[in-house]
Description:
By secondary structure, the chain is of the alpha+beta class.
Amino acid sequence: MQEIIRQIRDAIKDTEFAGKTYIAGGFVRDQVMGLQTNDLDITVELSEGGIRLAQYLHNLGIATKPVLYQEFGTALVLIGNYRIEFVMTRNERYRKGSRKPVTNSGTIREDIYRRDFTINSLIMDIMTGEILDLSGYGLSDIKHGIIRATSAPGIIFCDDPLRILRAIRFANLFQYVIEENTRKGILKNRGELTQISGERKRDEFEKILLSKTAQNGLKMLFKFGLMEFLIPELLSVENKICFKALDSLPPLFEPRLAILLTALNPDENKKGIILKICGRLKLSNKISSFCLLLHKLMDILNELVESDYSDDIELRIYYYQHQSQFQELFSYLEIYFSASGKKTDFGIIKKHAQRIALVLGGKNYPVSGAVLKEYFSLPACREVGKYIDLGFEIWLRDPELKAEEILPLIGRKSPI
C-alpha cells in the first residue's frame, strides 16, 4: 500500500492536487494504532476533486477507468490489485425521513465533522505524510481508548442511525469505552434504527458477531437496548449459555448465528421464528437452512440425552441424510455443549455418533420403491412410501442387511 501512496504522491507533485489531497478514515486510524490495513480512501479539497483526481491517474496509466458516483462526488478505481475510493471534501444535509444525504462540495474541516467518530476523522496529507487531527480529539481518543461522536451525537445519529451500531462495533473491536455524551445520544436515538434497512443492520451485526470478542459485542447490544432492532426474539431469553461458545467458534457467520439462536425459547415454534429472523435480516436461504439443520441436530442430541441413550434412530436418520455436513455441524455443537458444562453428556453422544458414522458411512439403502412394489404387488400409490420408511428404519438399525433380508422383515411389520 505504501507503494501506491508513493505513486499517487509522485503523480500529483506540482499539480493543483498537491496540498489538497488527503488519506482519510480507517487507514489513518489503523496506522496510528499500529495496525495493518489495505482500506485506502482519498479525499480531495477541490470541487469534484475525487472524480478529477481519479480521472487524472487513469490518464497517466496508474489507475483503471473510474467508476463514478456523480451524486456523491465519488470515484472508484483499481491501482494494482487494490480498490481505492476518491471523493471530494463535502458537507452533507439529510432530508427529514431520508437516509440519503444531499451532498455539496465543502472544506476539509466540514468533511471531518460530517464523519461519525473522532478516531475515524484523522487525515494524512499525502504529500508530507503529516497526520492532521482537525477535531482535536482523534489522537487523544485513540490513546485513551474512547469512541466519541465528531459533533453533536443527536445530529450524528439522526442523520444516519446506522452509526449507532457502528459505535458498538468499534467499541467492541478495539475494546474502547463510549464517551458519555455519545452514549446518551445512542440511548436517545436508538429508535431511529427502525428507519434503517434490514440489509444495512445485518452487515453491522455480522461484523460484531464475527469479531474475536463477539460475546462482549452482544452484551453491549443488549446493554444499550439495540437487540430489539436486530433480533427482538432474544430479549426475553434468560439462558445465554450460547454467548460463551461464540468466541470459541470459527469466525464464520452461519455457525455463530445458528449457535446464538439456540437461546430461543424451545417451547415455541423454533423453525418459524428462525425463518422470520432470517427474513428480517435479509439473509440467504443457505444461511437459514444451515441454522435449521443445526437446530434439528441439537434437538436430536438433547432427546438422546433425555432418553438415556436408549434409542439413537433419529440420529442415524439425520446422519444418513446429511453426511456431508454432519461432522461440521456436530463440531459446532460440541463447542456449545462444552460451554454449557455438559462435556460428560457430549462425550457419550460423541461415541454414539462415531459408531453411527462407522457403520453407515458411505452406505446406501438397498431397497428401492420399484423393488417394494414388485415384491409386495403394490400399486403405484402413497402406501409405497410407508413401506420404504419401514424398510429404511429396519436397515438403519442394521446396515449390513441386504435387500433380500430386509423385504421379509418389512412383511412382518407391514404398515398396512
